[in-house]
Amino acid sequence: MGTPREDALDIFDHALRTSRVELAMERRVHFHGAVMEVDGNRFALKEYQRCVVIALGKAAGTMTAALLRLAGREAERFEGVVVSPVEEAVPSRRFRCVRGGHPTPDAGSMMAAKEVLEALVALSEHDLVIFLVSGGGSALVERFLDGETTLETMAATHKVLVESGAPITAINAVRKHLSAVKGGRLAAAAAPAEQLTIFVSDVPAGELDALSSGPTVPDRSTVQDVYRIVAEYHLAERLPAEVTEMLRRGRVPETPKPGETIFARSRWSVLLDSTSLERAAAECAAGLGWSIQVDDTCDDWSAKKAADYLVGRARELKKERGPVCLISTGEVTVEVPSGARGRGGRNQHFALLCADQIRGESMTVLSGGSDGIDGNSPAAGAVVDGSTASRAAATGYPISKALAAFDSCSLLSMLGDAIITGPTGNNLRDLRILLAKR
Questions:
Q1: Are 364 and 5 in contact, with CB atoms under 8 Å apart?
Q2: CA distance to 71, 101, 117, 123, per residue, from 110 (Å)
Q3: Are 162 and 135 in contact (CB under 8 A)?
Q4: Separation CA 152–CA 105 (nearest Å)
Q5: Strand pairing partners for 302?
Q6: Residue range 288-340, pLDDT digits in tens
Q7: Quick one: CA dihedral 17, 269, 299, 218, positive or negative?
Q8: Sheet with 95-99, edge to edge strand ranges
């Protein structure tokens, strides 16, 4: 064992490295000449007139590069569109790369939707389309069903939803019903082509229709869910007027549902998800001598409720077992008031909430995003301990003030507690690590 802070950082780093997209693709995607095999599904590439790749999300560039590298000589059969939040190297002259906006749609997001839809509508039953879908696609690719909707309205809608405090599944239920590229509508655009979607998932297990707002899978949410969510989170008074008016008049169309014929030739494969992070973190922590406990109970809870629960759980466990590592994946929510101008994200906000509770205790808490980006900050997350609160007070910027301003990154960076990884090219939700000793 090193110090608990060193161990927490080592566990986080190991989890990120072990859960890399490239390694998972090597394990699960195989080419035997012109035959591609993914989890037992075989595709004889020579039988298709066109083989189109549509990659979208934070791992889009990584997934595309890995697929084409594994394809070897067969890579020349593929063409397509790659949509990412960063500038990507164009893999070949047969591909187009678009940089979309994240966490809010921008002009690039609208261009991405145009490029993707144009690539799909020309497909026939003689073609194959491979969708590579990872988190972040909800903002990166966007066009509302009403093609006249402005970028300003779309961006404002996304911002209200993300800052509403609603869980991601609820946020995406609303987004899907407003969009021309979400909630199964890309699958509808690609039909009747044969379709395979490979996921790098940042949503809870069994909820793939929430990943990037489910562009290629049947949507389980309904229009009635949308109306309920809007009422529950008081969104009508915050959404742009034209969106609120559309909801008020009941003009929201239903999304494609399970059993519809557009999905008759669709197959899906989950490459990585948050359990990949859990397994890797647990493996590393055990090797460092910590007793392991995994607890995802607080997935989609508010950051405050999750901090209370996990700190309390870690205290109980250390009494029972001695040095314990409590691992939790998933996401917490933070409701950011309009007008807040601080820098930070849910991981750093959660970390500060924990730091406020563990003053003087032998406990270390790390919370980080597997994508390397936390909210509107340059950090992936933060690592705090029993000394963080006193160190913050000594700077004249106490934890309470940073939390009230939603400015966690400014304080944590000042203290040296922010974690900077840069974009990882992956996105498997967040990882929280609590190390506690008697």
A1: yes
A2: 30, 9, 11, 21
A3: no
A4: 9
A5: 333
A6: 999 999 999 999 899 999 999 999 999 999 999 989 999 999 999 998 887 88
A7: positive
A8: 95-99, 78-84, 51-56, 128-134, 194-200, 266-272
Rounded CA separation 47/38 (Å): 17
Among 432, 345, 420, 437, which Cα is nearest to 380's?
420
Residue 355 CA: distances (Å) to CA of 57, 317, 335, 345: 32, 18, 19, 15
- Model pLDDT for residues 379-429, shown as the tens digit of each residue: 999 999 999 999 999 999 999 999 999 999 999 999 999 999 999 989 899
H helix intervals, 35-84: 60-71
CA distance 220 to 412: 40
Considering only the C-alpha atoms of the chain, give the largest distance between any 2 of them, rounded to a whole number of Å. Answer: 68
> Closest by alpha carbon to 220, among 173, 178, 270?
173
Q: Report DSSP letters for 293-328, one per residue.
A: EE--TTTT-BHHHHHHHHHHHHHHHHHHHSSEEEEE
Interatomic CA distance for residues 324 and 293, integer angstroms: 7
